[in-house]
Amino acid sequence: MLAAACTAAVGLQGVTSESARLLKPGITVSERNVKPPKRAAIQKPVETEAAWDGRTRMLGDGSTSYTGPQRNVPAPGKLKPGEKPPQFIVFSWDGALEGDERLFSHYLEMSKRYQVHMTFFLTGIYLLPSGQKSLYVPPRHPQGSAAISFPTRPHIRMTLEALARAWKEGHEIGSHFNGHFCGKKGGGDWSANEWRKEIQQFYGFVNNWKTNTGFADLPPLPFDPKREVIGGRAPCLEGQKNLMPAIKSFGWRYDASSPGDFQVWPRKKKGVWDFPLQMLPYERGDFQALSMDFNFLYNQSAGNTDGDLSQRVKWLDETRKAYLDGFNRVYHGSRAPLLIGNHFENWNGGIYMQAVDDVIKSVCVRNDVRCVSFRELANWLDVQDPEVLESLRALDPAQSPDWNLIVR
Predict the structure, then answer these.
(1) Beta strands in 267-351, from DSSP E residues, in sequence order
(2) Measured distance CA(228)–CA(391) in Å, rounded
(3) Cα–Cα distance between 169 and 267 in angstroms, integer?
């Protein structure tokens, strides 16, 4: 099994905000195999290019194609006077490799059943066989090197199939860049031009996987990466300062690399939406924990991915409760989006995947909850009145205002 890319640890942090102490009672986790209730009909999909002639256009060496605007994506709606915002939740995945555990496919099935859209941040070299690794020239590191494993050829095939299915079903494909370099000489040290080089190579690996793999029997990906990739998350959440001008030059609309913030409504940095991971209530005293599986792993078993078996039920409960308490804080309060970032992994017996599964089954079935991709969240934010968004940002996470005064 390939090593999963993981985010730098962020330890538990003390809380001074009064909002962290104003939690509503935890919601009950759904039974694992319960049939989800029916939800309101989804809005009409966005058709961003009505003039598309209906013909598929092959791109580059035939690795990708343009098949028209993405379907199965709900149109954003502007808040009406006095209307409470939907509770948005974004589940995002770093790396997006389909490994032996088939977790990519698992979450596509979960998404289909519970009417969820997600963001899959693809690592570019996960489409590059190890025999072709010299094609990768990372900033400040030797040619052909990476801080993660190059994939096997079977894993590349499975990943390509999962990516195609994900896009067809309305999910977002974003970027986790390539070599996952952190710390010294990693993304935090890179200049804007070095980040641009990294992004250009990401596009190259996606656009030329047929040449690089020799997989002539597989169909092209059904999307044009230069149209569809509009955001990413940097490895270890490092380097956003110089990454921002780089992604802006490619026309990207958001970045999800901030190392953590309280649960507040997003804002733009230099014209780009900033979607940080968030600090969630954590039951070990008056603390907050970052909304990512690796941070729970770090705090529960000191980063050991095969920690104490006797503690795993407790750790699962802690993780699930943090997600649900974070949900409740804003669901009954400001309605700020809940942003969760994870990896396809089976750390500590898969308890972090189980926690996500339980949250999806519990909250994504609610009529006033929207489990969406980052792209859909950005679309929604972009059609709101700027004055309304400013009023939302002024709310404490647990503050439930008179919405008639906020949305006018």
Answers:
(1) 267-269, 272-274, 279-282, 287-290, 338-343
(2) 31
(3) 28
| Residue 266 counted as domain residue | yes
Q: Is 188 helix (H, G, I), strand (E, B) or coil?
A: helix
> What are the structure tokens assigned to 251, written together?
């026309």
> What is the extent of the structural domain holding 313?
86-406
Residue type, 89: I
| Residues 6 or more apart whose Cβ sits within 8 Å of residue 114 | 36, 360, 361, 364, 365, 371
3-state secondary structure of 292: strand
For residue 15, what are its two tokens? 């809380």
**Look-up of token digits 């991915």:** 305
Q: Which residues lie across from 92 on neighbouring strands? A: 119, 341
Residue 354: closest CA among 30, 7, 98: 30
Q: Which amino acid is at 42?
A: I
Could you tell me which residues are beta bridge partners of residue 121? 94, 174
State the pTM of this model. Answer: 0.89
Residue at 53 is within a domain: no
Q: What is the pLDDT of residues 48-107, one digit of tens each?
A: 444 677 889 999 999 999 999 999 999 999 999 999 999 999 999 999 999 999 999 999
We report the CATH number of the domain holding residue 282 as 3.20.20.370
Compute the distance between CA of residue 303 and CA of residue 4 in angstroms, rounded to an integer: 13
Beta bridge partners of 120: 93, 173
Residue the block writes with tokens 């804002």: 267
**CB contact set of 387 (below 8 Å; sequence gap of 6+):** none
- When divided into structural domains, the chain yields a total of 1
Q: Directed axis angle between helix 293-301 and helix 312-331, to 10°?
A: 140
Q: Quick: pLDDT tens for 306-354.
A: 999 999 999 999 999 999 999 999 999 999 999 999 999 999 999 999 9
Quick one: DSSP state of residue 98? -
Does residue 191 fall inside a structural domain?
Answer: yes
| Longest CA pairwise span in the chain (Å) | 61
Q: State how beta strands 64-66 and 87-95 pair.
A: unpaired
Q: What is the C-alpha to C-alpha distance for residues 35 and 208, in angstroms, rounded to an integer?
A: 42
114 within some domain:
yes
